[in-house]
C-alpha cells in the first residue's frame, strides 16, 4: 500500500495545524538510473508533529532525509518547506546525525554558536551567546559552557549537538539516528529529553531510526518503508497520550504498535 499526501493528512488528523513540509512524488535514482533508491514518496508534515521513518537497511531512509535537507536533489518530484521549494541547504532546517562531531578545540558554547559564526560572522556568534546559554540550560548543560568536548560524555555531547541544531531557530528538525551510538540507558533518557525539547519548542521533527520501540514512543506518526526502492508501505498514527514516558515501553498498546511494525518489516512482508 502506498499512501498519498491527502491520505497522510487524514491519518495525522490535525487539519488545523499549518503544513511545514510537503513532498510530492519524490523519487531518487543514483548512478544514471542504475540504483533505484526511492519510489514515489508523498509526505506532509504539520507544525509541531513528530514523525519517524523506519525500514530495512539500504531502503532509502537517509536518501529521503538528505533530499528533505536539500543536500541531495530528487530525481523527480517536489519538495516544499514553508511554502518555498527546497533547492539546496537552508537556514530553516536543523540536522543531527549519529555522531555529535563537536570541534575538540572549541568549548561547548563555541561549538553551539558555530552555525551562526559560519552564517553571519563572529560578532553575530558572540551576540548569540545568551540564547546559546539558554539552550544549554534547556538541555541540562548549564555549567558546561566553557568545557571542551573531551570532558563531555556521549550523551552530553549529543545534548550540545541538539543546542547547535537549535541555535539558528530552524522550523524543521531532521534527525538521522541521533542517539544510536549511545548505550541503551542513555539513549532512552535522551529520547525522553528530545521529546521534552520538541514539545517545549513546538518543533516539527522527522527521525530516521532502526529501533521500532524508539519510533513508536517518540512519534505521532510512523512511516514504514519497503526494501529498496523505498516506498511507504504503511503510515501508522501512534495514538498514545503525551508526554510519553519510559513506563510506556511496557504498555500493551505500545506493544501492539511494535508488533504491527515488526510484522511489516519481517522478511518477505512486501512480496
Ligand atoms: N551517493 C550514492 N551513490 C550511489 N548509491 C547510493 C548513494 N547513496 C545511497 N546509495 C544507495 O541507495 C540505496 C539507499 O541508501 P540509503 O543510505 O538511503 O539507505 P538507508 O535506508 O538509509 O540505509 P541504512 O539503514 O543502512 O543506513 C542503497 O542501495 C545505497 O547503496
TrEMBL record:
Top-level taxon: Bacteria
Keywords (A to Z) from UniProt: ATP-binding, Nucleotide-binding, Transport
Lineage of the species this protein comes from: Bacteria, Pseudomonadati, Pseudomonadota, Alphaproteobacteria, Hyphomicrobiales
Signal peptide as annotated in the record: none
Protein name per UniProt: NitT/TauT family transport system ATP-binding protein
Source organism per UniProt: Aurantimonas endophytica
Keyword Transport: yes
UniProt xrefs under InterPro entries: AAA+_ATPase (IPR003593), ABC_transporter-like_ATP-bd (IPR003439), ABC_transporter-like_CS (IPR017871), ABC_transporter_ATP-bind (IPR050166), P-loop_NTPase (IPR027417)
Protein family membership: Belongs to the ABC transporter superfamily.
Coiled coil, from the record: none
